[in-house]
């Protein structure tokens, strides 16, 4: 079976699907897309200046480049986001991550290193069908370790939140007397999660900074 790098795993939680040359009909179109995506990632992660602060809470800061990265990458997904929508997603993620850390959730570095190594191994394997997408990203960096460090940080955030949300789901199942595994698509669970997330965001007291 051919290995496929899931592009969503490369940028982690930016809602970008698998990108392969077959999807675009020709190699030239695929190469152009890979180049565009790699520019978006590099330009919004490597810059020392992350742009203006666009939202701020008690312990949360959201920068302009973070919003651009998420919004622009989402244009290559099945769920494109405006910058306003991307900003709300980032605020939610940061508030959840902050809450998870406060409650003691933590992902071992060894697990994060293993996740990054898995992507590296797939990239090194010439049989991986769409390794060009990662090749395009890494080509932008003078030192590719900068990208791997960025990826590890993204995994740290998403895996910490996932652990916290898994326990939230257990709490929901206990309250509802549900014995079987809860589906993420369960509407009552989604309502429960939304209520909890809203409380967390209120506690984080994040305010969007209006443009002057």
What descriptors fit this protein?
9 helices; single chain; 212 residues; three-stranded antiparallel β-sheet; disordered N terminus; mainly alpha
Q: Which secondary-structure class do the elements indicate? A: mainly alpha
DSSP helical segment count: 9
Q: What Rg, in angstroms, do the CA atoms define?
A: 18 Å
Number of structural domains? 1
How many strands in all? 3
Q: What is the helix fraction of residues, given as a range?
A: 55-70%
Low-confidence stretches: 1-21
What is the subunit organization of this protein? Answer: single chain
Largest sheet: 3 strands, antiparallel
Shape: globular
Distance between the termini: 54 Å
One letter per element, helices H and strands E, the order comes to HHHEEHHHHHHE
The strand line-up of the biggest sheet is 2-1-3
Q: Tell me the fraction of residues in β-strands, as a range.
A: under 5%
Mean pLDDT: 82
Describe this structure in words.
The protein has 212 residues and is mostly helical. The N and C termini lie far apart (54 Å). The protein has helices at 7-11, 21-24, 27-45, 64-74, 83-102, 109-124, 132-138, 145-176, 187-204, and strands spanning 53-56, 61-63, 207-208. The protein has a three-stranded antiparallel sheet. Strand 1 (53-56) and strand 2 (61-63) form a beta hairpin. It contains nine helices and three strands, in the order αααββααααααβ. The chain has one domain (7-208). The radius of gyration is 18 Å and the shape is globular. Residues 1-21 have low confidence and may be disordered. 62% of the residues lie in helices and 4% in strands.
């Amino acid at each position: 079976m051919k290995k496929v790098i899931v592009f969503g795993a490369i940028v982690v939680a930016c809602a970008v699907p698998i990108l392969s040359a077959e999807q675009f009909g020709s190699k030239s179109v695929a190469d152009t897309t890979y180049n565009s995506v790699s520019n978006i990632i590099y330009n919004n992660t490597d810059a020392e200046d992350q742009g203006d602060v666009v939202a701020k809470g008690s312990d949360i800061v959201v920068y302009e480049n973070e919003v651009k990265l998420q919004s622009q990458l989402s244009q290559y997904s099945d769920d494109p986001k405006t910058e306003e929508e991307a900003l709300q997603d980032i605020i939610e993620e940061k508030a959840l991550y902050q809450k998870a850390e406060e409650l003691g959730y933590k992902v071992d570095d060894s697990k994060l290193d293993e996740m990054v190594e898995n992507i590296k191994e797939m990239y090194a394997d010439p049989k991986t069908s769409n390794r060009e997408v990662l090749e395009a990203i890494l080509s932008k960096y003078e030192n590719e370790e900068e990208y791997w460090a960025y990826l590890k940080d993204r995994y740290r955030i998403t895996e910490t939140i996932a652990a916290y949300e898994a326990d939230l789901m257990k709490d929901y199942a206990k309250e509802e007397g549900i014995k079987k595994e809860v589906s993420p698509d369960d509407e009552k669970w989604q309502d429960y999660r939304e209520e909890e997330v809203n409380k967390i965001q209120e506690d984080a007291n994040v305010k969007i900074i209006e443009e002057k």
